[in-house]
Amino acid sequence: MAAPVARYGTVAIVLHWAIALGIVGLIAIGLTMDHLDIGQLAMFRLYQLHKSIGITVMLLIVLRIGWRLAHRAPPLPSGMRRGERVAAHGVHALLYALQIALPLSGWAMVSASVFAIPTVLFGVLPWPDLPVLPGLHDKAPVEAALKGFHHWAAWILTGAIVLHAAAALRHHFIAHDGILARMLPARPRRKASTP
To answer: Which CATH class, in words, describes the domain spanning 10-74+87-183?
Structure first.
């Protein structure tokens, strides 16, 4: 019988999947805004929703990083090769960095926007602009640079997510080493039947 897999705690698992769901939604909304002609009102609503989810994901990732700093991750399987370990740590670092950089760049882009449209999270909570950017004399080139960064960083994050998911599936279906199970919700244990 295989040894039980060391798992992440409930808080880490909930934060991971909430952030993942938010990011998938942000990617879908971003692609819709970039590639579909949906009319001005629908576009405005999508932008507001995108900003609301983006800020929420940013706050969740800050919580996740804080939780991670206070709670050690389960060890990787002892049989993992050194190159795989380095790649895993590198991709995780890239994911964390992009999950902070993307919402910050989006927030900065909105703050530097020539349109100066306020952000109201989920239509309820006004969200402030970042300091300095709204008062810039010539905001257009700053907004354009931030938009370009946000666009390409989103594509890099999408690629990192695909790589991360592919590696997790490889570990689950090919290596059978329990890596994926560490981040899945625990199944309730069945009680042994009595004779």
So the answer is: mainly alpha
